[in-house]
């Protein structure tokens, strides 16, 4: 489930702001 959410969020964020993908992943890894 988590991997699906990461992929979905990252895919959408990449369209507008690639940096958002990194921030999203970083937050998940930090949690």
From TrEMBL:
Protein name listed in UniProt: 2-succinyl-6-hydroxy-2, 4-cyclohexadiene-1-carboxylate synthase
Upper classification of the organism: Bacteria, Pseudomonadati, Pseudomonadota, Gammaproteobacteria, Enterobacterales
Originating organism: Klebsiella variicola
Superkingdom of the organism of origin: Bacteria
